[in-house]
């Protein structure tokens, strides 16, 4: 009897222990992840993201996750103020062309790194010299293609010697991922520097410094009191950034108040769901990402190397596609408003953006027009339905690409003008084949290197372009080269608009979506709308809570 | 989860069976030493075969640089990178170099985030080990007592219910079970955190600790902050249950089968005929010997646990080796994948050796 009781007690105790652990843990309460420790004078804020950091070293990464960190902790010579796509001096006092191939930057005096080292022109020269020397494949050194050399004239003066004169995009390059200035006493001149060495070396001079760093798990930032840059004093003293792998976990945490801000990247469905949730605010801003269909001028229907080659008919086919695509439907149905319709080559929000395609194609209001498409084809003598092989990648532009292109196929085939053969390929093969004339028409997307209209023109529409789609318009080519070197902003803007109008006539590509920047915040968080601007940089210093 | 009934009952329990004379001779003649030596030496060919298999499988997909960076670099850039990494050399040369690297503790550098693979292994290994320990704890605490209970209620409703529970435990996919736990305890009831190893505040405090072990519970205890300890435990409950119940189901059935087996043995019958009460028979004579096979099964379970950890860690964002393995697979970083898989394979081989040693020490029959 005694042993029986003892045995029963043990069983009960064992079961009890398991249950108690669960209940105790539950009773402990999930008190939120808002991190109340280490709050600075300006409070504490927790941000959640699914982005990933590749490395903190600006020479070794060229991705959103890494650049997001750099924007908080490293100084730039030029930067974009809140609400603008255009650059101004950041830690520089002045920056200007002093000769056609000389861009001179004067630093503010008395700049200090967080470790106490002086921040001088020697650091600036070191930064750009090491970018060129390291030239890491994952890094952004290609953006310095026009840089001949960097000269430190004195402690505060730097002269950039350029290969091509009057490069108006160079100030933007200085604000891009190749632009973060690094401490020459901490960084290696010839190889990438480890994240922990950068953190331990306190090689920071941004609105924030990193106070603790757990790679792709948790980064803690503290406001840097000696920051003298364009963005001013941060509104929040301590910011913690928590990295998620699964956007649904991020959604749950922002919904429950465990994180104050969720930025990049909740799914379209989750954002749509959160729009109706009283506990959070969904804040939208313009995004730099664009989606477009590329036509290969050689292999598209009636293309230059096809048996029935006919430039007029080929143009009519492209025009008909532009007439038939219903951008609004794709944005709403597939992306729940996280993408917006795009009617030009330079996205909305950037200086020089127009809507060249809106009035020219479809119903003139942005909607599709099947009759107009039919007339364009008929006028050119094209036999319908036109058979169009349309290719997209199933693993590069997110899980919705399948839905996106199924809808585009439906839209093109709705009036019987097209018969679309939709095909998909894995990205590695896709990126090889698209430049090998394999695809007559195909999907691509683009993230800008910096927020200048040129970044949406030069790579695409010069005769030698990265699309390799055999588009060749000498006038467009010359105008693009001209706008890059036109110092007068108004004159340059006029040229950019003219280029867009010309390309809209040729339809080398048909742009149709612009990605929006979306942040989901707690109702007590302010400032997200200030930083969701056309600079496409999310600056934590704008955010405040309470 | 494919453990068979044979495995569950395989170790058998017949402590009353007298060893054969020949066996007794070998046992007394230093059998344990040679057994352990042979088992130890077997680790090397096992690991060698595992490493070779992983290498060959990874190379079947092409070279790691093209897999990770293909489509992002131009053809010449890619060729330059492949050449710099030495992946354009004969596979046998690469294989020899890889073996030399492993022997010196160098698993290479990840392609996607440029980190030494050894750093990845040491950084995230502790988290996986911590989860495995929690899971084993759950398996023991749940599986063994319930197995005994099932044997006690043999062929009655209680037994049937527990057997169904056991089948559900090891037949339910671990990721599905994890999602179910999250839905109930995190979303519906709001009792437990959705994901992660600790909340932001707790993690920041843990980061301030000098000489962090990577085991959050140990670090939290060293920190001496009860709130952080509670926070870490809260985060561990659901992943530990998801992974632990998988093994608990196997333990339950194993203990049940073996207890029932030993209850029918001659020495138990003899004790029964001497008037020993049934409950004492169960506790003293049948239960303890029935636990011995658990030791041997742990070796198998470690492999299953590590496999399950990949899914559990991903479901709960438990940032361990399993989680990283998924991340690197998505990034097609096969250098990192190769390193992690090799480490997991080595852990399984070494654990099996340790289990063999323990089993041999506990049960002399195992040596033969």
Structural overview:
The complex is a heterodimer of chains A (546) and B (368). With 546 residues, chain A is of the alpha+beta class. Helix content of chain A is 32%, strand content 21%. Chain A has helices at residues 2-28, 64-73, 121-134, 170-173, 195-200, 247-255, 268-275, 311-324, 327-334, 356-360, 370-380, 401-413, 427-434, 458-461, 474-484, 489-506, 528-531, and strands at 44-49, 78-79, 88-89, 92-99, 102-107, 147-154, 157-162, 208-214, 218-223, 238-243, 261-263, 280-285, 290-295, 339-341, 386-393, 418-425, 441-446, 509-515, 517-522, 525-526, 544-545. In chain A, strand 6 (147-154) and strand 7 (157-162) form a beta hairpin. In chain A, helix 15 (474-484) packs antiparallel against helix 16. The longest helix of chain A is centred in the first third of the chain and has 27 residues, at 2-28. Chain A is globular. The N and C termini of chain A lie far apart (64 Å). With 368 residues, chain B is an all-alpha fold. In chain B, helix 7 runs antiparallel to helix 14 (278-316), helix 14 packs parallel to helix 15 (321-330) and helix 14 (278-316) packs antiparallel against helix 16 (334-362). The longest helix of chain B has 39 residues, at 278-316. In chain B, 43% of the residues are buried. Chains A and B meet through helix 1, helix 6 and helix 13 of A and helix 4, helix 5, helix 7, helix 9 and helix 10 of B.
Which key terms come to mind for this protein?
heterodimer, A: alpha+beta, 7-stranded mixed beta sheet, 17 helices, disordered N terminus, B: 368 residues, mainly alpha
Shape of chain B: globular
- The run of helices and strands of chain B is HHHHHHHHHHHHHHHH
Biggest interface, chains and residue tallies: A-B, 58 and 56 residues
- The gross shape of chain A turns out to be globular
The oligomeric state of the chains shown is heterodimer
Give me the count of strands of chain A. 21
Task: Determine the strand fraction of chain B and express it as a percent band.
Answer: under 5%
Lateral strand order in the biggest sheet of chain A = 8-9-10-1-11-19-12
């Amino acid at each position: 009897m005694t042993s029986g009781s003892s045995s029963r007690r043990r069983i009960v105790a064992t079961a009890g222990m398991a249950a108690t652990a669960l209940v105790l843990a539950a009773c402990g309460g999930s008190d939120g992840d808002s991190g109340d420790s280490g709050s600075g004078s300006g409070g504490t804020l927790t941000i959640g993201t699914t982005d990933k950091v590749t490395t903190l070293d600006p020479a070794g990464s060229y991705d959103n996750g890494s650049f997001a960190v750099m924007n908080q902790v490293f100084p730039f010579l030029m930067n974009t103020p809140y609400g603008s796509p255009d650059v101004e001096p950041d830690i520089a006092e002045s920056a200007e062309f002093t000769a056609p191939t000389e861009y001179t930057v004067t630093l503010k005096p008395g700049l200090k790194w967080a470790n106490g080292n002086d921040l001088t022109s020697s650091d600036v020269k070191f930064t750009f010299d090491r970018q060129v020397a390291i030239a890491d494949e994952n890094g952004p050194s290609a953006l310095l293609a026009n840089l001949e050399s960097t000269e430190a004239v004195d402690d505060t003066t730097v002269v950039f010697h350029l290969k091509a004169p009057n490069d108006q995009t160079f100030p933007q390059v200085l604000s891009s991922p190749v632009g973060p200035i690094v401490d020459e006493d901490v960084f290696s001149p010839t190889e990438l520097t480890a994240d922990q060495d950068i953190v331990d070396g306190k090689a920071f001079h941004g609105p924030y410094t990193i106070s603790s760093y757990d790679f792709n798990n948790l980064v803690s930032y503290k406001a840097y009191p000696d920051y003298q840059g364009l963005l001013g004093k941060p509104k929040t003293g301590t910011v913690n950034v928590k990295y998620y792998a699964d956007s649904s976990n991020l959604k749950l945490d922002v919904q429950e108040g465990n994180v104050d801000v969720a930025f990049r990247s909740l799914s379209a469905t989750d954002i749509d769901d959160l729009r109706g949730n009283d506990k959070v605010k969904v804040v939208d801003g313009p995004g730099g990402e664009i989606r477009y269909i590329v036509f290969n001028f050689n292999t598209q229907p009636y293309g230059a190397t096809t048996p029935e080659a006919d430039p007029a008919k080929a143009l009519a086919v492209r025009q008909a596609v532009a007439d038939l695509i219903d951008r609004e439907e794709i944005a709403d149905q597939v992306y729940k408003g996280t993408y917006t319709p795009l009617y030009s080559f330079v996205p909305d929000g950037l200086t020089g953006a127009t809507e060249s395609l809106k009035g020219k194609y479809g119903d003139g209001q942005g909607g599709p027009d099947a009759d107009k498409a039919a007339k364009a084809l008929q006028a050119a003598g094209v036999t319908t339905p036109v058979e169009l092989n349309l290719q997209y990648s199933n693993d590069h532009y997110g899980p919705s690409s399948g839905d996106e292109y199924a809808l585009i196929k439906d839209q093109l085939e709705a009036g019987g003008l097209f018969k679309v053969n939709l095909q998909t390929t894995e990205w590695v093969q896709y990126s090889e084949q698209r430049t090998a004339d394999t695809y007559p028409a195909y999907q691509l997307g683009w993230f800008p290197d910096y927020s200048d209209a040129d970044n949406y023109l030069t790579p695409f529409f010069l005769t030698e372009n990265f699309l390799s789609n055999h588009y060749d318009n000498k006038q467009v080519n010359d105008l693009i080269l001209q706008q890059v070197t036109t110092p007068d902003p108004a004159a340059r803007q006029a040229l950019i608009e003219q280029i867009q109008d010309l390309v809209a006539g040729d339809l080398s590509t048909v742009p149709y979506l612009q990605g929006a920047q979306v942040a989901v915040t707690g109702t007590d968080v302010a400032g997200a709308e200030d930083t969701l601007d056309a600079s496409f940089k999310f600056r934590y210093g704008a955010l405040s809570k309470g | 989860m494919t453990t068979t009934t044979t495995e569950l009952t395989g170790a058998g329990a017949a402590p009353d069976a007298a060893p054969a004379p020949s066996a007794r001779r070998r046992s007394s003649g230093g059998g344990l030493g040679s057994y352990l030596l042979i088992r130890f030496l077997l680790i090397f060919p096992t690991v060698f075969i595992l490493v070779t298999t992983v290498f060959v499988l990874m190379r079947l997909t092409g070279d790691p640089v093209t897999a990770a960076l293909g489509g992002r670099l131009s053809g010449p850039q890619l060729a330059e990178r492949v050449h710099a990494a030495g992946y354009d050399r004969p596979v046998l040369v690469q294989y020899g170099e890889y073996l030399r690297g492993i022997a010196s503790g160098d698993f290479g550098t990840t392609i996607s985030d440029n980190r030494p693979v050894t750093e990845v292994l040491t950084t995230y290994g502790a988290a996986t080990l911590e989860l495995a320990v929690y899971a084993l704890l759950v398996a023991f605490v749940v599986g063994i007592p319930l197995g005994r209970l099932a044997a006690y209620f043999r062929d009655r409703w209680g037994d049937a219910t527990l057997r169904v529970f056991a089948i559900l435990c090891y037949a339910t996919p671990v990721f599905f079970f994890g999602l179910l736990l999250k839905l109930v305890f995190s979303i519906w009831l709001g009792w437990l955190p959705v994901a992660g190893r600790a909340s932001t505040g707790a993690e920041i405090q843990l980061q301030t600790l000098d000489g962090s072990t990577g085991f959050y519970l140990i670090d939290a205890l060293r920190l001496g902050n009860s709130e952080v300890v509670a926070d870490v435990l809260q985060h561990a409950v659901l992943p530990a249950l998801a992974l632990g119940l998988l093994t608990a189901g196997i333990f339950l059935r194993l203990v049940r089968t073996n207890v029932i087996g030993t209850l029918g043995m001659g020495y138990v019958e003899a004790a029964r005929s001497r008037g020993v009460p049934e409950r004492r028979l169960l506790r003293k004579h049948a239960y303890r010997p029935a636990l011995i096979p658990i030791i041997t099964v742990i070796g198998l379970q470690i492999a299953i646990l590590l496999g399950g950890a990949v899914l559990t860690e991903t479901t709960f964002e438990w940032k361990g080796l399993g989680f990283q393995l998924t991340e690197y697979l998505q990034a097609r970083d096969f250098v990192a994948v190769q390193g992690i898989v090799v480490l997991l394979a080595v852990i399984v081989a070494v654990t099996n050796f340790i289990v063999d040693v323990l089993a041999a020490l506990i049960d002399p029959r195992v040596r033969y």
